[in-house]
Amino acid sequence: MICKLALESTRRYLEAFKYEQFTDVGIREELRRTQGFCHTHTWQLVRMGASLPLAQAYRDVLSDSIDQLRHSTPTAPGAGRLRRLLEGRNGAGRASSAGTPGSTRPDCPACKRHALAEERYIQDLRQALLDDEFMGQLSASSGLCLEHFRLANELRQTAVHGDWQQRLQQAQLACLERLDARLGELIRKHDYRFQDEEKGPEMHAWKQAAGLVGGEEIQ
To answer: What is the pTM of this model?
Structure first.
């Protein structure tokens, strides 16, 4: 019973965000501070069709990330603005596998396997970043979600020599700047004055932003 009531309360909150509250300054500032909704509620909003609300709110989050990457010091990635970016989801990110605050339920075996796979792929990514061809492919892709970008920077260092961290930041910045431009176009074309303009890939940018901020959807 409590499960259903809590889910219904959350659904009403997301409905209010979709139709009214996404323009509320206080809520937008809270989402900037938390770097968006968690994975579950980000994709619940996607399924609800909250294209403009997500585009506007998550453009704020990504704009902050762009600013922090532009002003970070490659030789000291843990300092200043980049530190704030990397700490953005610490303590405020995705729910643990236990699922509820204070739960004594043991960690889910699949979640533990997932975490090990993330660590393994991040080590591979660090090595691959030293290859110019891979660097170009990553820069032209949708980029890493903010959580995996944080993990890629923060996981314990391995014997990968070279400037992989600087190259990671450069590639991520290129991806975020490209998405930011598309989000700007999407938002502009929601204005009635420009609704008749030809639609392009920018109309899907809100889902890409959802994937970067909340983590990609698992089918």
So the answer is: 0.77
